[in-house]
Amino acid sequence: MTYLDEWEQQLQRDLGEIRSSTAKLAKAAAAIRGRSTIHGVAVEVDTAGAITNLHIPAAAMKGTSTQLGDALMEAHRRARADAQAKAEELMRTADPRLRAGIQELRGEPAPAPAAQPKPMTEEQIQAADDAYFERMNEQGWRG
What is the pTM of this model? Predict the structure, then answer.
C-alpha cells in the first residue's frame, strides 16, 4: 500500500466523521427551542426565532391590548434569547471542523491561529540536548 492510498483512506474516514458530525449537529439544532413565560403568556421559538408554540391564558385577555402586546413581545424576545444561548452552547461542543465553517458562513472572524514557538537557536538546541543526556545519565538508561 502506498502513502497515497493511506492518505486517501484517511480522507475517507475524516469525511465520514464530518458527515456524521454534521447530521448530529443538524438534528440537535433542529430540536432547540427557546421558551419564556410572561404573565402567563408562554412563547416557544426555534433557533431562527420563529414561534413554534404560543399560549395565551384567558386571564391575560382581561388586561388591555397594550399589556397583552407587551407581554407577547417580551416573552418572544426572551424566548429568542433562550434559543440563541442554547444554540451557542451547542456550537461550543460541536466538531471544531464544523464550527470553523459555520463561523465563516456567519461572517464571524476566525479564531487567531495558535502562536508558533520561535525556532531554537543552535545554543538552545545544544543546551536542551545536554540537559536530556544529563537526566538520562542520572536516571539510568532503560531499554
Answer: 0.66
